[in-house]
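S.,

Sequence below, as promised.
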Amino acid sequence: MLKYATDNAAWCGIPVQITAGLKEGITKTSEIRTKVCQVAAAPARPAGPSLSDALSGPVPDSNNTRTGRGTFDTLTGNPLDKK
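The prediction came back faster than expected:
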């Protein structure tokens, strides 16, 4: 498109600003293409934890559980009941 605009500017009446804008756009496109190709060629980063890994807590077992009277101990009655 730039070649056509440059070659036929006088015949078609294409303003100089259009040709300059095309050159500027091609330059920016080339810069973006270079950056994208550099990122694509870079080695893959290690994957972080999955959503299920991030949301899952420790697995309860006999070593990390406590029993007794507490606010949420419903086996001993209603914790909101007045005594």
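The chain has four helices and no strands.

Coffee later?
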